[in-house]
Amino acid sequence: QLQASGGGLVQTGGSLRLSCAADGRTFSRYVMGWFRQAPGKEREFVATISVSGGTILYGDSVKGRFTISRDNAKNAVNLQMNSLKPEDTAVYYCAGGPQKFSPTSKVYYTPSAYSTWGQGTLVTVSS
Length: 127
Hints:
With 127 residues, this protein is mainly beta. The chain is built from no helices and 11 strands. It has strands at residues 2-5, 8-11, 16-22, 30-37, 44-49, 56-58, 66-71, 76-81, 90-98, 116-117, 121-126. The strands form 2 sheets. Strands 2, 4, 5, 6, 9, 10 and 11 form a 7-stranded mixed sheet that branches. A hairpin with a 6-residue loop joins strand 5 and strand 6 (56-58). The chain is globular.
């Protein structure tokens, strides 16, 4: 079970930090990811981090602005979002799934690689 938090309203150029708390029984064995979905659009890959934290991948639209991290001792994954833009406005979802593939596999860009999803947290960036 995943619980996302930290969303809110921020001005363009501002920052937010999203957190996702996970069930400790499986977290340490799961690849974790963040996706987002804006109104009328498909769910979009944001970032993913491997079980060890050694492999991190980002979607092109957030590279250089967002940072994903995980704390296996606290069963949490975080998404630090800087230099936010209005086009970052969306519901953000954390997701987890067993590491069945190489951590660098682009399968982790797709929602189907993840078996467990949080409820989503809304991020709104005003212009």
